[in-house]
Write a structure and sequence with these properties.
31% helix, alpha+beta, six-stranded mixed β-sheet, single chain
C-alpha cells in the first residue's frame, strides 16, 4: 500500500474502503439474479351458485402449468346468513372445485385463503416453490352497507417470494352503471384502509402500494357508458371492441388519473363477461336487460411484468358472469443467501479493521420541519434526504430519547425508521404526521402540542437531531362529550386555554348563563340530517355518495365520531356491569339511568334515532341484526380487546334499546342553541 500511496497520493483508508465496497457491490450482483415465474390470475363472480361444472377449462387453460395460482371469487354466497355471520358452506365446495381444476401436470401446495362474506381469494403454489414463500398476511376491508360491511369490499393476501414483496387484491365494488363515483371511492377506501402488520412491530403497517408487485383482480363492476344496449350488442357482434373500450369506465377513469394510477391492464380482445342468462351464452333477457360490460378485470403494478394471455372462458355457464384469466410472467429477485452471507461477512471483517479510522457521517437536507394546519385523520408528510458523505457505509436508526419508550410521539412516524446506506448513497425518509382517535384528545385540549425532536443515530457514529413542529386544528373528533356539551361555538374557534380550563371554569359558572347543552351540537346536526333525509332509503343506497355532505358522508362521520370518543357513550367504568346484566332488559335500562347526564342524553338520543329507522324497515330494509353489531361496539366499547363472548354480550345488551318502550325518549330534541 505504501507504493500506491506514493504513486497515487491516496490514503490507505480510502483505497481499502473503495476496494472492499466494490467487492461488496460485486457480491450483490454475483449472488443475486432475476427469476421469471408465471402467475395465473383468475376471477369469477359465481352469483351465489354451487359449483356445477369442472373449472379445468378455466384454471388449466395454459399450455404449461403456472408456478402460482391466485383465484378470486365474488358473490360466493348471497344468503342473509353469510352476510350476518360471515359463514357459508359454499366455501369448501368451491375450494374443492378449484383444487380439482388446477393444471394436472404439476403438484400444488395450498398456501392461504381469505374470505369476506362472498369475496374469496385462494392462493396455491407449486410444491417446489413453497419453501421460498414467507411473511404471508391476509386482510379484508368492507365498503358495503354504511361503508363498512362486507357485501362489497376487498380481501388481500401479501407475501414475500424470495426477495420480492407481492400483494394480491380481490375486490367487488359498487354496482350499477351510474355509480362509477362510488366505485372510485371504494377503490380509494380499500387502498387507504387495507394495512398489513409487519413482523417488526416498530415498523409502520404496510399498505397495498408499498409492495414491489401489486396484482388487482375481481368484479370491479365498471360498466360501459353512454351507449344503448342494442348498439353495444351490435359492436360486440362486429367484434369492434376498440370502439366499445372507448366507453369503458375503467379506461375513462384511469385516463383521468382518478383510480388505478400506475396500473397496467392488457389489451381486451374478448367480449364482455356480464351479463348472461344463467346456464347459457345468451345476453340478459330479463326485464332489466342489462347492458353488457367488462365487469371482471385483472390489472397489475410493478416492474419486469409481462402478460402472456388475457381472456374470458365462455364454456363455463354456472353464473351470469364469465370467468376471466390472465397469465403473467414476473421477474422475481433471488439472492443466493449462503454465498451472499459468506461474501458479506468476509468484506465486513476487512472493513472492521478500519473502524477507528473511518467514522460514519451523513448530511441531512433539512433539520427543521413545520407541519401547517394538521387535521384529524388527514395524513401529512415531508421528506428529509439523508446522504452518506463519509468514507464508509453506515447503519442509521431513530432512537428514543432519555426516559422515553419510543423514538417519536405517537402522532409521528419516520419511514424507514432504520436502514443501511452505502458510501455515496442517499435515502429519502418520510416524516409522516397522522392524528387519530388515540392522539387527538390531548391535542384538542392543548395538553400536547405538535412538537418533537427526532434523534437519528449512526452506528459507531454521532447523533443528528431533527426538529418537528406544527399546529393542530382542534376538532370535535377525539373530544369528550362533556367538553363538547360546554362548547357553544365550533371548537376550532375556541382558544386552547379556554378549552383546557373549561371544566374548572364551569364548576364556578352561572348555571343560567353557562348551562351546558343536552347533547353536543355536532351529534344533533349529523343525526338530524340522517333523520330528515335518509330514514326511508334502502340500506345499500342509504349511504351512497351522491354529493358532498350526502347521507353516506354524514353516516360515516357519525360512526367515526363515536369511534373517536376518548370516553365512549357508555363510559368504560360501566362496561363490566353492562356485560353482567346483558340478558335483563330492566337492569340494562337501570344502568343507563345512572350514566353521567350528557352521556345518558346522547345514548337515549341515538337509540331513539335508530328506533325511528327501524319503524321504516319496510322502506330501508334495516333490522336489528344489521344495526346492533355496528352501534353496540361503538357505544359500549371495551377498555381492552374483546373476545367473542364479550362481543355477543355487548350486542345483546344494546338490542334491548332498539325495541321502543313508552319510557324511551323521542328523537325530536330541540336544536342546541
Amino acid at each position: 500500500f505504501s507504493w500506491f500511496e506514493r504513486v497515487l497520493n491516496v490514503s490507505v483508508c480510502e483505497m481499502f474502503l473503495n476496494l472492499n465496497w466494490q467487492l461488496l457491490s460485486l457480491a450483490c450482483v454475483v449472488t443475486s439474479c432475476e427469476s421469471l415465474n408465471s402467475f395465473f390470475l383468475g376471477t369469477y363472480n359465481v352469483n351465489g351458485q354451487n359449483p356445477k361444472e369442472s373449472l379445468s377449462p378455466w384454471l388449466a387453460s395454459t399450455t404449461t402449468p403456472p408456478d402460482f395460482y391466485l383465484v378470486a371469487f365474488q358473490e360466493l354466497d348471497l344468503s342473509k346468513e353469510a352476510f350476518l355471520f360471515n359463514d357459508t358452506p359454499k366455501e369448501p365446495e368451491w375450494m374443492l372445485a378449484v383444487y380439482k381444476g388446477l393444471h394436472p401436470d404439476a403438484k400444488y401446495a395450498f398456501v392461504k385463503l381469505v374470505r369476506l362474506v362472498g369475496i374469496m381469494l385462494l392462493f396455491y403454489v407449486k410444491v417446489e416453490h413453497a419453501a421460498h414463500i414467507s411473511e404471508v398476511e391476509v386482510e379484508s376491508v368492507g365498503t358495503g352497507v354504511m361503508g363498512r360491511l362486507g357485501n362489497k369490499g376487498a380481501v388481500a393476501i401479501r407475501f414475500q417470494f424470495h426477495n420480492s414483496d407481492i400483494c394480491v387484491v380481490n375486490s367487488h365494488l359498487a354496482a350499477h352503471t351510474e355509480e362509477f363515483e362510488r366505485r372510485n371511492q371504494d377503490f380509494k377506501d380499500i387502498c387507504r384502509r387495507m394495512q398489513f402488520s409487519q413482523d417488526d412491530l416498530t415498523l409502520p403497517p404496510l399498505t397495498i402500494m408499498k409492495h414491489n408487485v401489486v396484482l388487482w383482480l375481481g368484479d370491479l363492476n365498471y360498466r360501459i357508458s353512454d351507449l344503448e344496449v342494442d348498439h353495444v350488442k351490435d359492436l360486440i357482434a362486429k367484434k369492434d371492441f376498440e370502439t366499445l373500450y372507448n366507453h369503458d369506465q375503467v379506461r375513462q377513469n384511469t385516463l383521468q388519473f382518478v383510480v388505478f394510477v400506475g396500473f397496467t391492464e392488457g389489451e381486451i380482445d374478448f367480449q364482455p363477461t356480464y351479463k348472461y342468462d344463467t346456464g347459457s351464452d345468451q345476453w340478459d333477457t330479463s326485464e332489466k336487460c342489462r347492458v353488457p360490460a367488462w365487469c371482471d378485470r385483472i390489472l397489475w403494478k410493478g416492474k419486469n411484468i409481462k402478460q402472456l394471455h388475457y381472456q374470458s372462458h365462455m364454456t363455463l355457464k354456472t353464473s351470469d358472469h364469465k370467468p376471466v384469466s390472465s397469465l403473467l410472467e414476473i421477474g422475481i429477485k433471488v439472492v443466493n443467501e449462503e454465498s451472499y452471507k459468506r461474501t458479506f461477512e468476509e468484506i465486513v471483517r476487512d472493513i472492521d479493521r478500519l473502524e477507528n479510522d473511518c467514522i460514519p457521517s451523513v448530511t441531512l437536507s433539512q433539520r427543521e420541519f413545520q407541519f401547517q394546519d394538521v387535521k384529524f385523520m388527514q395524513h401529512q408528510a415531508k421528506t428529509v434526504t439523508v446522504y452518506n458523505d463519509g468514507q464508509v457505509p453506515c447503519q442509521f436508526e431513530f432512537i428514543p430519547k432519555l426516559d422515553e419508550p419510543s423514538y417519536c410521539k405517537p402522532w409521528l412516524t419516520a419511514n424507514p425508521a432504520k436502514g443501511f446506506l452505502a458510501q455515496g448513497a442517499s435515502v429519502d425518509i418520510d416524516l409522516e404526521v397522522f392524528v387519530n382517535r388515540t392522539t387527538a384528545p390531548e391535542l384538542n385540549s392543548g395538553q400536547q402540542q405538535l412538537e418533537d425532536i427526532l434523534v437519528l443515530h449512526l452506528d459507531r457514529g454521532k447523533d443528528y437531531f431533527i426538529f418537528v413542529t406544527g399546529n393542530y386544528l382542534p376538532s370535535c373528533f377525539g373530544s369528550s362529550l362533556s367538553t363538547l356539551c360546554l362548547l357553544k361555538e365550533p371548537i376550532q374557534d375556541m382558544p386552547l386555554e379556554t378549552i383546557r380550563d373549561m371544566k374548572s371554569t364551569s364548576q364556578g359558572s352561572n348555571p343560567e348563563t353557562d348551562k351546558p347543552q343536552e347533547i353536543p351540537k355536532e351529534i344533533w346536526m349529523m343525526v338530524d340530517h340522517l333523520y330528515r333525509n335518509a330514514k326511508k332509503q334502502v340500506r345499500i343506497a342509504l349511504f351512497s355518495p351522491l354529493l358532498a355532505g350526502s347521507n353516506h358522508s354524514v353516516s360515516e362521520a357519525l360512526l367515526l365520531f363515536l369511534d373517536a370518543l376518548p370516553e365512549p357513550v357508555i363510559p368504560f367504568s360501566f362496561y363490566p356491569q353492562c356485560l353482567e346484566c346483558c340478558s335483563d332488559s330492566s337492569q340494562c335500562r337501570q344502568i343507563i339511568s345512572m350514566l353521567p347526564q350528557c352521556h345518558k342524553n346522547v345514548f337515549n338520543y341515538l337509540t331513539a334515532f335508530l328506533q325511528e329507522l327501524l319503524k321504516f324497515s319496510a322502506h330501508n330494509r334495516l333490522d336489528v341484526n344489521i344495526l346492533a353489531p355496528i352501534f353496540a361496539g361503538l357505544l359500549l366499547r371495551s377498555p381492552t380487546k374483546q373476545d367473542s363472548t364479550e362481543k355477543r354480550k355487548v350486542k345483546e345488551f344494546f338490542q334491548h334499546f332498539l325495541v321502543q318502550t313508552p319510557s324511551d325518549r323521542d328523537i325530536h330534541y330541540k336544536s342546541p342553541e
